[in-house]
Amino acid sequence: MVPYQQQATRNWRQEELQGDLMIFDSVMFSHDGDKVLQVVRDDMATVRTGRAKPSIVENVMIEAYGSHMRLMEVAMISAPDTNMIVIIPWDKSLIQSVEKGVASSGLNLSPVVDGDQIRVTIPMLTQERREEMVRLVKQKLESGKQMLRDVRQKHKKMIEDQKGKAGVSEDDITAALESLQKSFDECAVKLEQLSKDKESELMKV
Questions:
Q1: Model pTM?
Q2: Which terminus of the chain has fewer CB atoms gathered within 10 Å of its CB, N or C?
Q3: How far is the first Cα of the chain from the last one, in angstroms, to the nearest whole number?
Q4: 82 — phi, psi (to 5°)?
């Protein structure tokens, strides 16, 4: 067995069958699940909490050098206090492009150019607005859950497609599906925690 296969064997949860045949690859599922978590994490970062944080604007798309780039790729972003974000483009010629990108981002922010930097004031949220943002977070959580279910379905099909193959028993399929569900549940817990953390942050006054 080559070194790559030896390393893979240590990572796979389901036992190896007929030399190289694997029923469930937990590493692949973990990779797919992590991608879902990152998408949801980035999406929730756009939800304003009433407190200034660089993450509010770092993924705003900016027109730069003939293409679109994330703000964090073209500027230094800081939050010197709880209601102010300061953006300093590394290339000063991008000042107007950055201002336009933030203003049109859909985040309801009003950037102000101040010399070679841009200031963005983050207004405090009312209780009603906080509750609206919590509902938005829950919507984003549900979208994440659906993405995760889609990942599970993909891996379930990969497992079930091995039914009837040489060396694969019904018990093997059952064990693989149980391992899949366990990996799914672990990822779902992390997804729920993202939502809880964001909701907690939103409700802090």
A1: 0.66
A2: C
A3: 59
A4: -75, -10
Return the structure tokens found at 145.
């859950």
Phi (first) and psi of residue 73, to 5 degrees: -85, -15
Read off the pLDDT band of 14 (50, 70, 90).
Answer: very low
The CA distance from 165 to 189, in Å, is 34
For all residues of the chain together, what is the average pLDDT?
A: 86
Give the percent of the chain with pLDDT over 90. 61
Q: Which residues contact 165 (CB under 8 A, 6 or more apart)?
A: 21
Q: In angstroms, rounded to a whole number, what is the distance separating the alpha carbons of residues 45 and 30?
A: 22
Handedness of CA 198, 28, 4, 7 (dihedral sign): positive
Residue with tokens 């891996």: 155
| Span 147-185, pLDDT tens digits | 999 999 999 999 999 888 888 888 999 999 999 999 999
